[in-house]
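Box 3.1 — From sequence to structure: Retrovirus-related Pol polyprotein from transposon TNT 1-94
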Amino acid sequence: MGDSARFTVARLTDGNYQVWKFKMKMLLIREGTWTYVDGPTPPTHSEAWTAGDEKARSTISLSVDDSQVVHICNCTSAKAMWEELRKVHERANLSNKLYLLRKLYQLKLQADEEMQGYIRRTLELVERLRGIGQETTDFQVAALLLSGLPESYETLVTALDARPDDDLTLEYVKGKLVDEFMKKQGSTSSPSASGTALRAKGDDSKQV
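Predicted structure (token representation):
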């Protein structure tokens, strides 16, 4: 059984290009056809080169949603397919950058949202911006994560703000946010437990 039959990626849609691009590259590397996308195209195509390019084209074509087929159905090489999809999904125009930047700066941790989900949403937008040439430093990402927190995290934000900037790496901030979220999740169950214990103590004192 071939690699492409055992390893698949989620099909490309309008909203998952950055993740799809990375996973598709890994899949093509694994099956030995990434060179047909990233390498030079020979002036004359040998039978072996044509077979390899067709394999890469088929892998890409079978890993996109039906809505994306229109962008690549007339491409005659894997390299052309890859470039066409890049142009479609990494539009570097001003309106697209503004749209993504606005979404990034307006991100907030929702009341019913897991902290890891909030972090993932932020990083996905950052990667989409980087894909169209809008660089965002890890320090800026860390600051944006903190700015999107509700007031209940103010103590943590104040404590982190007191630390030197060099300490505030993205990994450090993400770890602190997850730790604080888990602490808060644990504390939500403690009042009921404490109340039960107090009631039990009260009942015992009455019996005495």
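Summary of the box: The first helix runs from residue 3 to 6.
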